[in-house]
UniProtKB/TrEMBL annotation:
Residues the record lists as N6-(pyridoxal phosphate)lysine modifications: 208
InterPro entries hit by this protein: Cys/Met-Metab_PyrdxlP-dep_enz (IPR000277), Cys_b_lyase_bac (IPR006233), Cys_met_metab_PP (IPR054542), PyrdxlP-dep_Trfase (IPR015424), PyrdxlP-dep_Trfase_major (IPR015421), PyrdxlP-dep_Trfase_small (IPR015422)
Entry's Gene Ontology BP terms: L-cysteine catabolic process to pyruvate; transsulfuration
Protein's organism: Pseudomonas tohonis
Keyword Lyase: yes
Annotated keywords: Lyase, Pyridoxal phosphate
Organism placement in taxonomy: Bacteria, Pseudomonadati, Pseudomonadota, Gammaproteobacteria, Pseudomonadales
Catalysed reactions, as listed in the record: an S-substituted L-cysteine + H2O = a thiol + pyruvate + NH4(+); L,L-cystathionine + H2O = L-homocysteine + pyruvate + NH4(+)
Family recorded in the similarity comment: Belongs to the trans-sulfuration enzymes family.
GO molecular function: cysteine-S-conjugate beta-lyase activity; pyridoxal phosphate binding
Protein name per Swiss-Prot or TrEMBL: Cystathionine beta-lyase
UniProt cofactor(s): pyridoxal 5'-phosphate
Pfam family, one: Cys_Met_Meta_PP
Pathway terms, separated by semicolons: Amino-acid biosynthesis; L-methionine biosynthesis via de novo pathway; L-homocysteine from L-cystathionine: step 1/1
Length: 393
């Protein structure tokens, strides 16, 4: 079935069809795994003309192409390139839109490794970064200068979950000829399609929900027609491709992505509501909650929410109490990733690195990833943790 035929179906149906063709796979449901570095040419003319879709292993493989083609259709992009990590995807996107002497705009709530990349790597090549309040909206215009090439967005923001006004900011960027990049890892194309809202390039960490099992590292970058040539040229120059096995596992994860995200949404909302009623919790940072900054933008633009959110504890608890809570959890583990089947929690404090806004928290802040464990078990694990928090404080 061709791509036009698939596009008429609902997203959950498309996910079962994209990136495979049993008619070309001897009837097997899934495409085979291709691994290798060397491509063989039959004639002198062929090798001189590089007459092959894959001239060398760094140019990709059928396995990589299956995932690229599937993601391109899923996101409504002109093309997709892959990287070995989500941060690698961010780097590819930014390298494709910047040059020495450029100025870029990045939200203060951005994923911290993206901030480090801008401050440490791009700065070495003469690209300056201005961090802005993620809730600035159309007022972003006052920060655009004559050498501003790129507006980076992340919705919702890392750790603190501010939802940016993407359409308003895109409109301003286009008026000034500024390229836009969106980190869309939290929502995925299931809940938000950046290109439908005018974004030029989207980046995602397939490590998270696309993989779904905490066993791959993968980044994906998509571009619209105007930005695709530069993105592909950047990719070809750097050969930052992922391993074939990771792409195969990502294709497998794609088949259940819709079901897992809908379940993550249900579980995330249930646990967030339960936490909002706990006396130990001062507030919940979840885009679907009216109290979350940018909730109206989320309600207008997004089709759902995933299973990642944060809470701020009530004041008065000690670090010893926090340690007693987190060190002895039975189900929640402490780890920096998310999107897998296991529940995770990390403490965070944005005060040490934010520069455009002042992060104010009345108590300790925790980010939670809701996994697939029994919900009562998860609640009981946190409830016992809260008891230890209070006792040790």
């Amino acid at each position: 079935m061709n791509k036009d035929d698939i596009s008429k179906f609902d997203i959950s149906t498309q996910l079962t069809m994209l990136g495979r063709d049993p008619a070309e796979q001897f009837g097997f449901v899934n495409a085979p795994l291709y691994k290798g570095s060397t491509i063989i040419y039959k004639t002198l003319d062929d090798i001189e003309a590089r007459r092959s879709r894959f001239s060398y292993g760094t140019a990709g493989s059928p396995t990589i192409a299956h995932l690229e083609d599937a993601w391109t259709q899923l996101t409504g992009a002109e093309g997709t390139v892959l990287s070995s990590s989500g941060l690698g995807a961010v780097a590819l996107a930014l390298f494709s839109t910047t040059k020495a002497g450029d100025h870029i705009l990045v939200p203060d709530s951005v994923y911290r490794p993206t901030r480090n990349f801008c401050n440490q790597m791009l700065a070495r090549y003469g690209v300056t970064t201005t961090y802005y309040d993620p809730m600035i909206g159309a007022d972003i215009e006052r920060l655009i200068g004559p050498n501003t090439s790129t507006l980076f967005l992340e919705a919702p923001g890392s750790q603190t979950f501010e939802v940016q006004d993407v359409p308003a900011m895109v409109a301003i960027a286009r008026r000034h000829g500024v390229k836009t990049i969106l980190d869309n890892t939290w929502a995925t194309p299931i809940f938000f399609r950046g290109h439908d809202h005018g974004i030029d390039l989207t980046v995602e960490a397939g490590t998270k929900y696309l993989g779904g099992h905490s066993d791959i590292l993968l980044g994906l970058v998509t571009a619209n027609q105007a930005c695709w040539p530069a993105l592909r040229a950047t990719y070809d120059a750097m050969s930052m491709l992922p391993g074939a096995e990771d792409c195969m596992q990502a294709l497998r994860g794609m088949r259940t992505l819709f079901l897992r995200l809908k379940e993550a949404e249900r579980r995330g909302l249930e646990l967030a509501r339960w936490l909002s009623e706990r006396p130990e919790v001062s507030r919940v940072l979840h885009p679907a909650f009216e109290s979350c900054p940018g909730h109206a933008h989320w309600k207008r633009d997004f089709k759902g929410s995933s299973g990642l959110f944060s809470i701020v504890l009530a004041p008065g608890y000690s670090r010893d109490g926090l340690a007693a809570m987190l060190d002895n959890l039975s189900i929640f583990s402490m780890g920096f990733s998310w999107g897998g089947y296991e529940s995770l929690v990390i403490p965070f404090d944005c005060r040490t690195y934010r520069t455009a806004t002042h992060w104010q928290a009345e108590g300790f802040a925790l980010r939670l990833q809701v996994g697939l464990e029994d919900m009562d078990d998860l609640k009981n694990d946190l409830a016992r943790g809260f008891e230890r928090l209070a006792a040790a404080s």
